[in-house]
Amino acid sequence: PELPTTVPAFPILMSGTRPDVRLLPADSIGRAYRRVLQTYGPRLLTYSGPAGHPRLRRGLAEMLSATRGLAVDPETILITRGSQMALALTARALVRPGDVVAVEHPGYRPAWEAFRLAGARIMPVPVDSEGLDVEALRRLLAKQRLRALYVTPHHQFPTTVTLTPVRRAELLRLAEQERFAVIEDDYDHEFHYGGPPVLPLASADTTGTVIYVGTLSKVIAPGLRLGFVVAPADLIASLAAYRTFLDLEGDAALE
């Protein structure tokens, strides 16, 4: 077919998803800041723990249990300044120089770079209409031991394909058999344009294989940096230790 000869009168942005901050209730957020600082100011403006404010960790644990099928408690959650920090901390705690991390191709390059900065070698795995090609991953494992796999199963970035139930089960079995970590980036779980919400891959994980990364910045505003990691308690402790060398702690008033 012939290509259209007309050009739209407005640009079409094909970058990652982001909320329209013009719709943000800035006055309400400002009042909330003032209220929390008036009530808890001295406690919030001194040093605190690197894992995040306990009240937010408890709230996230309840939300993830009620809406995403994750059986978590506050001690298995670390609050970060957005999901990119969560990925960077996970890479630092998990990867040693020379380790191999498999990624979706095409995929989310800022995550790739976080693993590269930690010393990982990146190996691409193709994506098709059913999500990550698990058979291609199996062939890669026959040649190369993996430390971890980075995956966006809910809305694959950038294709938006959802990983099918059959492949999800195959991937979890393969990760358990071959003993590699699955880093699930559920960056826009709340956005659904067709069909019902899909539970995270981590909700079906019974062996502690999946490290679950999420963000609140997509549902509030990118400038309000709030992300989180859900992982076994010993890994959360390692992430918190690394965080003290990078950032000490988060924004307790925001949290």
Describe this structure in words.
The chain is α/β, with parallel strands linked by helices. Helices cover 36% and strands 15% of the residues. It has 7 helices and 8 strands; from the N terminus they run ααβαβαββαβαβββα. Helix 3 (83-94) packs parallel to helix 4 (109-117) and helix 3 (83-94) packs across helix 7 (233-246). The chain starts with 25 loop residues before the first helix and ends in a 9-residue tail after the last helix.
Low-confidence segments, given as residue ranges, are: none
Strand count? 8
Structural class call reads: alpha/beta
The strands making up the biggest β-sheet line up spatially as 1-8-7-6-5-2-3-4
Task: Supply Rg.
Answer: 19 Å
Helix content: 25-40%
Terminus-to-terminus distance: 53 Å
Primary descriptors:
8-stranded mixed sheet; 8 strands; 255 residues; alpha/beta; single chain; globular
Summarize the topology:
Layout: H1 26-44, H2 54-68, E1 77-80, H3 83-94, E2 100-105, H4 109-117, E3 121-128, E4 131-132, H5 134-143, E5 148-151, H6 165-178, E6 181-185, E7 210-215, E8 227-230, H7 233-246
Helix pairs in contact: 3-4, 3-7
Summarize this structure briefly.
The protein contains seven helices and eight strands, in the order ααβαβαββαβαβββα.
